[in-house]
UniProtKB/TrEMBL annotation:
Similarity comment text for this entry: Belongs to the immunoglobulin superfamily. CEA family.
Protein name per Swiss-Prot or TrEMBL: Carcinoembryonic antigen-related cell adhesion molecule 5-like
Domain Ig-like: 2-81, 92-171, 175-258
Organism: Acipenser oxyrinchus oxyrinchus
Swiss-Prot/TrEMBL keywords: Disulfide bond, Glycoprotein, Immunoglobulin domain, Signal
A Pfam family: Ig_2
Domain of life of the native organism: Eukaryota
Signal peptide: none
SMART domains registered for this protein in UniProt: IG, IGc2
Length: 280
């Protein structure tokens, strides 16, 4: 049976010229090369020696990967070599990090680094320039402010000697911890001014108001402050009665207040005297 030998063990893309030589015993032997089931012919990319014993690929590429066979024959017999698997080493290229831009304080996250590489790359992680871990994944079980910053992943191929890197910035945000609705004044009186304020522990990027589970509609009489933290009634009326709720959110959390039941007290006048009636 013929044998196939290569001049290089781990050919590197662009760097190496691969020469495969077929050796067989016998006389008056002819040689033919196959890539899979296709006959290999002399071309711009692949050169065959005059006797077809040697196949040469200069500046080998990853597209040259394949399973090659040497077929030998003479007038009385023929034989095929064992398959020769040509695997071209390349990369790493286009390293990238898959990870969130924002993480909630106390949450768990995973950063994953990948790159096009043969053989697979080795990965090293750096946080703000300091080496922190090895491996394609970097897991943080309990995010804190110490985990904030620029993450760099360096992919390195031990065969090609090449590397590729990627950077990802992580921002840690404290989730909203508490939310409540505070009335001013404590007792709403019909035809007087009244307001509800959405108080939040933490930093809220947005606040939304609801009345009876529906988005609150504003009017010339019912207005919101610039940051939506306060809804003002000028004046407050019986028609405003209902359950009010505030929803606060930031990029990593959302919290709903308990419902505040607004029951407007009536204000009656008799002559020049005023008094407050029972709460509706």
């Amino acid at each position: 049976q013929p044998t196939v030998r290569s001049n290089v063990t781990d050919p590197v893309e662009f760097n190496d010229t691969v020469s495969l030589t077929c050796t067989a015993s016998g006389s008056d032997v002819s040689y033919r090369w196959f890539n899979g089931s296709s006959v290999v012919s002399d071309s711009e990319r692949i050169h065959l020696s005059d006797d077809n014993k040697t196949l040469t690929i200069p500046g080998v590429l990853r597209s040259d990967d394949g399973t090659l066979y040497c077929y030998v024959f003479n007038p009385v017999s023929n034989s095929t070599s064992e398959p020769f698997h040509l695997i071209v080493s390349y990369g790493p290229e286009e390293a990238s990090i898959m990870a969130p831009d924002l993480a909630a304080n106390g949450s768990a996250i995973t950063l994953t680094c990948s790159a096009h590489s043969q053989p697979p790359s080795h990965y090293t992680w750096y946080l703000n320039g300091k080496q922190t871990a090895n491996g394609s994944q970097y897991m943080i079980d309990h995010v804190s402010a110490d985990n904030e910053g620029n993450y760099t992943c360096v992919a390195w191929n031990s065969v090609t000697g090449r590397n590729s890197s990627a950077i990802k910035e992580l921002t840690v945000i404290a989730p909203i911890a508490n939310i409540n609705v505070k009335p001013t004044p404590a007792q709403p009186i019909e035809n007087n001014t009244f307001s509800l304020t959405c108080n939040v522990t933490g930093t809220a990027d947005s606040r939304l108001w609801w009345k009876d589970d529906q988005p609150l509609s504003t009017t010339e009489r019912i207005t919101l402050s610039g940051d939506n933290s306060t809804v003002s009634f000028n004046p407050v009326l019986q028609s405003d009665n209902g359950t009010y709720q505030c929803t606060a959110s930031d990029p990593v959390s959302q919290l709903n207040s308990t419902g505040y039941r607004l029951d407007v007290n009536c204000k009656y006048k008799k002559g020049i005297e005023s008094f407050f009636a029972y709460q509706i």
